[in-house]
Every structure is written in C-alpha cells, then in structure tokens.
C-alpha cells in the first residue's frame, strides 16, 4: 500500500487537532506517514500522539534553523519525501501556512493541488466548496503526486493505533542568503483561548459589534464557552479585532461544533469560511439578514442584549 504523507501541524511537538483529522483521512487513501518539521527533538515529543492516530511512520525533518525559517523547511522536507517515497498523496491542513505550503509544494513537484478539501474518496476524488462556497465540486488530481489542503474540522479524527516508526530525514540546508528568517514573534491577543481553527466552539463578531471596545461582549461569551473568538472582515477592516482572527474566504476556515455569529450579515465570503460548522447560531437585529438562511438557530435581536444574557446563562450552568 502506498504511503500518504501528512504534514504535522504542531507547536513545539504538541500536535494540533487538525493533524489527527488528516491522519484519519489519509488512512482511507493508503498508509499514513506523519512528517514533523521543527527543532531537534520535536518528532520524539509528537510521536506517541501521531501513532495513536494511525501514523505508521513518523518522519523527523529536524534542524536547528527550521523554526526560524518560515515555511520553506516544510516544503523542502515534503518535496524530498515525495521524490523518495512516491506517496499516493500529500495532505496538509488548509490553514494560512498549510495553504502556502501546498501551493509551493505543488509547483516544486509539478503536481496538481486541490485546496479547502472537505473529503476524499478512496480513489482520490476530492470534494471541495469553490467560489466562496457557492458550489460543491468533485475533482481529482491527474498530474504528479496530488497535494491536498484539507479544511480543519471537515473530518472527524479517529484514534487508531499505528506503528509510529520514527525515521530521520536529512534535508539539505539552503544557501543562507536565500532564506527569510523569523527574528522574533509574539502573540497579538488571544491569551489562553483555543486556536481558531482548532476550537470546538467559535464566537464571532461582525460590524454590528460597532467598536473595538464592544468586542469584549464577544470575548465574554467566548470565555463562558471556552471558545475561540472570530471576526468578519468588516470587523477586522474597521479595526475592531486583529486580522489573524478573520473568518472567511480571505481569512481562516473553521468547522467547529458550534459557531455563534453576533452582528454578522452572512455575506458569501464570510460563509465560505464557516458554513460547514456543525451548528450555527446567529444573532442579528435584521430578520432578513442572509446569515439566517444557514443558521440552525436564529435570534432576531440586539446582540448587546442577547449576548450578555447568554453569557450569564452559560456561566451559571
Ligand atoms: P455587515 O455586512 O455590515 O453586517 C453587519 C450586520 O450586523 C448586519 O446584518 C446588521 O443587521 C447587524 N447588526 C448591526 N447592529 C447590530 C446589533 N446591535 N445587534 C445585532 N445585529 C446587529 N468577509 C468576511 O467576513 N471574511 C472574509 O474572508 C471576506 N473575504 C472577502 C473577499 C473578497 C474578495 C470580498 C470582495 C469580500 C470579502 N469579505 C469577507 C467581505 C464580505 O463581502 C462582507 O463585506 C463582510 O463579511 C461583512 O461583514 P459583516 O457581516 O460583519 O458586516
């Protein structure tokens, strides 16, 4: 059976939920092999969790410089393994960095790429929502090793034992003059909240929230649920909330168990990033707002009245 390479999304060896979803999807296509890129020792930290979700092999592409070189170490490692292992496919998360890796890898290996995939049949036919979610299409890569970026939350992760055999991969260092290096980074806001693409509950605010200060209403409801905070592009462009929290076509794609939209109209570009959420709750004072077309539960009302009551009720329970 051919290998299926899965790029591991991790923070210092702590594996993120979307990787387990990718491993589950990979099992339907072949033998899952996890590819861990990072500083020396990260693959050993991640190995048990990866094996617990079906990884037969754990490739360790480790180097002292990997963490300071943006996404090129991942592209380099995957390109090398595509050549060496001739896998049936390469799966990466459809995160901001994952999508960038997928595009670059496809160019590097001369392969076709499918983005924002929601599912893959055993014969490699992928299901995708395209044109901002207006159409659902089935597509198949016919050139090279298929590279697929899979929407976080689209697949239910299953815990299945795999061998998890660790194998070191020596990726040649690039010419130091040709690489961009991260010289420092710090989280903007978000604190202890779960990551947007990993969270099982997302509470998002739109232009209806009205100001950066008022976003505390969104944050308080999110904290009552232990949820992540999201924002529409209008809220981001108006300076109410940082861009890293934008949900939608040009932001992040999320598929949580519960998505609560506060003061969001439901434009197609916003829906593209959240319409696969399992349950959608919308609070909007306009009964005609398009968000109600996809909401499972809708409240026509002022978010500044509804959200605090909801926060109080959730906290009380
Ligand atoms: P609005 O459309 O202005 O809606 C605000 C809503 O709040 C209204 O429905 C109003 O009734 C309601 N409201 C106001 N006050 C209250 C209150 N007190 N209580 C309850 N409800 C209230 N958008 C995204 O979100 N993500 C993207 O990634 C994205 N990408 C885009 C890419 C392209 C190429 C383009 C052209 C657009 C993109 N957009 C994206 C923008 C998108 O078209 C919409 O403009 C945007 O989603 C609107 O955001 P909103 O719903 O917050 O604002």
From TrEMBL:
Details of cofactor binding:
Binds 1 FAD per dimer.
> Single Gene Ontology BP term?
fatty acid beta-oxidation using acyl-CoA dehydrogenase
Q: Which GO terms describe its molecular function?
A: electron transfer activity; flavin adenine dinucleotide binding
Subunit info? Answer: Heterodimer of an alpha and a beta subunit.
Keyword entries, A-Z:
Electron transport, FAD, Flavoprotein, Transport
Q: Which Gene3D superfamilies match?
A: HUPs, TPP-binding domain
Tell me the classification of the organism that encodes this protein.
Answer: Bacteria, Bacillati, Actinomycetota, Actinomycetes, Pseudonocardiales
Family the UniProt entry places it in: Belongs to the ETF alpha-subunit/FixB family.
Q: What does this protein do?
A: The electron transfer flavoprotein serves as a specific electron acceptor for other dehydrogenases. It transfers the electrons to the main respiratory chain via ETF-ubiquinone oxidoreductase (ETF dehydrogenase).
- Keyword Metal-binding applies: no
Cofactor(s) in the UniProt record: FAD
Q: What is this protein called?
A: Electron transfer flavoprotein subunit alpha
PROSITE patterns in the record, alphabetically? Answer: ETF_ALPHA (PS00696)
The UniProt record lists the keyword Flavoprotein: yes
């Amino acid at each position: 059976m051919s290998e299926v390479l899965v790029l591991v999304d991790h923070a210092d060896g702590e594996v993120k939920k979307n990787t387990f979803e990718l491993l589950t999807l990979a099992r339907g296509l072949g033998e899952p092999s996890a590819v861990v890129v990072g500083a020396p020792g990260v693959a050993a930290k991640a190995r048990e969790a990866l094996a617990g979700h079906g990884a037969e092999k754990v490739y360790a592409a480790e180097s002292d410089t990997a963490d300071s070189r943006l996404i090129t170490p991942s592209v380099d490692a995957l390109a090398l393994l595509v050549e060496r292992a001739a896998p049936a496919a390469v799966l990466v998360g459809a995160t901001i960095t994952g999508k960038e890796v997928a595009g670059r890898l496809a160019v590097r290996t001369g392969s076709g790429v499918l983005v924002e995939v929601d599912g893959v049949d055993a014969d490699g036919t992928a299901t995708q929502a395209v044109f901002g979610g207006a159409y659902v299409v089935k597509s198949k890569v016919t050139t090279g090793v298929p590279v697929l970026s899979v929407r976080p939350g689209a697949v239910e992760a299953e815990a299945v034992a795999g061998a998890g055999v660790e194998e070191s991969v020596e990726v040649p260092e690039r010419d130091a003059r040709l690489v961009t290096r991260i010289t420092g980074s710090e989280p903007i806001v978000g604190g202890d909240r779960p990551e947007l693409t990993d969270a099982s509950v997302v509470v998002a605010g739109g232009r209806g929230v009205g100001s950066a200060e008022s976003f505390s209403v969104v944050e308080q409801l999110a904290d009552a649920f232990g949820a992540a905070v999201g924002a529409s592009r209008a809220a981001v462009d108006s300076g109410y909330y940082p861009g890293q929290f934008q949900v939608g076509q040009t932001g992040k794609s999320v598929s949580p168990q519960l998505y609560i939209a506060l003061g969001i109209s439901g434009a197609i570009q916003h829906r593209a990033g959240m319409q696969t959420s399992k349950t959608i709750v919308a609070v909007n004072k306009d009964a005609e707002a398009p968000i109600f077309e996809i909401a499972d539960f809708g409240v026509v009302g002022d978010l500044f009245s509804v959200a605090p009551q909801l926060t109080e009720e959730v906290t009380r329970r």
